[in-house]
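We modelled the chain as a single entity of 109 amino acids. Its sequence is:
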Amino acid sequence: MSMSVGELFEELSTRFKSDAAAGLDRTLQWNITDVEDGVWAFRIADGEGELIPGGVADPDTTFSTRSETWIAIAEGRQDAMRAFMTGKLKVEGDMMLAMKVPELFETGA
């Protein structure tokens, strides 16, 4: 059974790969825009990650998508780049950081 958007975000810190984030000081943010709408940020500093429900005022990179798309990406069923190319995932801000996200988190159910 699929997890909810909130459950998947709560699990993000357990999937965070601190070694891949060494030297990063950035904040990612997700805007989920439908059934389970909400905003979640994930701050990375000195190899540590912290989930911030409700988001932050000035994230470095913001992803906007529907809950169904985000769940599929988080569970490894949808390729994030393909979702971006087909318009299912919108990205604003630091594109280089956006490209690094798959390296920063484990995916898969």
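As a brief sanity check on the tokenised model: The first strand starts at residue 25 and ends at 32. The chain has four helices and five strands.
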